[in-house]
Amino acid sequence: MASPAILCILFISLSLFTASLASTSDSSPTVYELLEKYDFPVGLLPKGVTGYELNSTTGKFTVYLNKTCSFTIDGYNLKYKTEISGTISTDKIKDLKGIQVKVLFFWINIVEVTKDGDELELSVGIASADFTVDNFYESPECGCGFDCNNGIGGKAGKFRFNSKPFVSDS
Ligand SMILES: *[C@@H]1O[C@H](CO)[C@@H](O)[C@H](O)[C@H]1NC(C)=O
Ligand SMILES: *[C@@H]1O[C@H](CO)[C@@H](O)[C@H](O)[C@H]1NC(C)=O
Asked: How far is 9 from 154, CA to CA, in rounded Å?
């Protein structure tokens, strides 16, 4: 059950989080610039970001996509809502909402992303996986995910289950 497929999914999910092109106005930094400011790598958000809000005091943010996004990888489904929110600080995104991975019969939220040196850890509560930062130089696109970008190699993570049981979130 813990498999490279899951790694792959988690990797993509994270990839959808840092993105490329989105500025709310001429004077605001883009989402991409913002993520860099918090020490996250390029390539965490999909194309189609239309804007974001950030409270720079608390780190609470909301990112808006122009449409929901889902695709299948190795038999697993990923789903991105049009609104993704969380709390960001240097090297850490917590209380993440809006990105889900389907494991068996359950849609599970990716709840936390942590960067430690060259490693990114994604947590879905029941499990987490580590990836090297250089897996995140490119952003997948809705519809084709990984494959649009010539299959970025993101299977370098270790995968381990936490002790909690599966939790369904929708
Ligand atoms: C969403 O954004 C993408 C990338 O900018 C664009 O290609 C697509 O047409 C947009 N879709 C809608 C429904 O606006
Ligand atoms: C940020 O959050 C703090 C605490 O909730 C609040 O007092 C402040 O007004 C917020 N700032 C903005 C720009 O929304």
From this structure: 9
51 lines ligand 1 (CB under 6 A): no
The CA-based angle 18-141-16, given to 5 degrees, is 25
Asked if residue 68 lies in contact with residue 77, where contact means CB atoms within 8 angstroms, the answer is no
| Residue located nearest, by CA, to atom 13 of ligand 2 | 55
pTM for this structure? 0.67
71-96 pLDDT, tens per residue?
664 455 678 899 999 999 999 999 99
- Average confidence (pLDDT) over 88-108: 87
Name the CATH code of domain 31-168 (choices 2.30.240, 1.20.1330, 3.90.1480, 2.60.40): 2.30.240
Minimum-distance ligand 2 atom for the alpha carbon of 56: 1
Cβ < 6 A, ligand 2 pocket: 55, 57-58
Pairing of strands 76-89, 92-103: antiparallel
β pairing state of 127-132 and 106-109: unpaired
